[in-house]
Design goal:
Elements: E1 3-7, E2 10-12, E3 18-25, E4 33-39, E5 46-51, E6 58-60, E7 68-73, E8 78-83, E9 92-99, H1 102-107, E10 112-113, E11 117-121
Parallel strand pairs: 2-11
Antiparallel strand pairs: 1-3, 3-8, 4-5, 4-9, 5-6, 7-8, 9-10, 9-11
Length: 123
């Protein structure tokens, strides 16, 4: 089971960019698909983006498609979420999660979750 740690959150203005990192430690990171979720208080956790173990297949929520990109660097045990043209509705705590199966990772069924990093988009 992987241990995950997110970083890179912060306060930005609408239209700006931010890149989040999810660093993994543990066993065989290259075998895991990684997903990003976000949550705001009072709302359900929402899937944002996910990427398969090889880094070749990815999936994005409709709300972020064309604005967010996800990259997996197996050599660095890291997945990056590049967020461009940020909007106020992107505000939330962002979590990464891992599972060996792409579908399960994208669905949030993985057992490994990080502690989250907060993103605030506000003018």
């Amino acid at each position: 089971q992987l241990r995950l740690a997110e970083s890179g959150g912060g306060l930005v203005q609408p239209g700006e960019s931010l890149t989040l990192s999810c660093v993994a430690s543990g066993h065989r990171f290259e075998n895991y698909a990684i997903a990003w979720f976000r949550q705001v208080p009072g709302k359900e956790r929402e899937s944002v983006s996910c990427i398969d173990s090889s880094g070749r297949r990815e999936k994005h929520a409709v709300s972020v498609k064309g604005r967010f990109a996800i990259f997996k660097d197996n050599a660095k045990n890291t997945v990056f979420l590049q967020m461009n043209s940020l909007r106020s509705e992107d505000t939330g705590t962002y979590y990464c999660t891992a599972d060996v199966y792409f579908v399960d990772s994208c669905s949030g069924n993985g057992n490994s979750w990080g502690q989250g990093t907060q993103v605030i988009v506000s003018s």
